[in-house]
Amino acid sequence: MSLDDKDLFKDAMEDVTPLKDCANILWLKSPSTKSPRQTLEDQQLDNPLVSGFLTVVPLETPLEYKAEGIQQGVLDKLRFGKYSLDASLNLLRQPVEICRQSLYSFMLTAQHENFRNLLIIHGKGRNDDSHANIVRSYLFRWLQQFEEVQAFCSAQPQHGGSGACYVGLRKSEQARLDNRERHAKRSR
Questions:
Q1: What is the pTM of this model?
Q2: Among 32, 49, 64, 110, which is least packed by CB within 10 angstroms?
């Protein structure tokens, strides 16, 4: 690059700002730009996730939850990693409040994008009062607060083992309609 090219580049990049904290979210599908999104500040004002008193989940107890009416087979397939992952969130070494905000924003985006299967990496500690286990215990509470979460469980070793969890979300109404149309065409 010549000196003039460098000056032109600096002038062109003068008002560019770095993206905020994009390293902790990995999108496996490209996000669509169908409708405008709420700003992060607007989303956090509505964040209902509780961060008060916490009952710590012992390390020996695997994270596992199945909403009422969900078949055991769905949880088993989730536990064995049979569903393809749509997106993942990395909460390693993050303060609890940042984890709370990141999870809420991530779940809203996943619902908006009609993602079904998520991976959340929370880390694992060596004892019950380690930071990773505190985040894990909060995650156990927070995920149950989302209506769209039908099940979650500890991940397979290739995805983080007991330091991560798979989350299965309910189908959106649009996905149900698409499924009905697809199956109706086959039955004709």
A1: 0.73
A2: 32
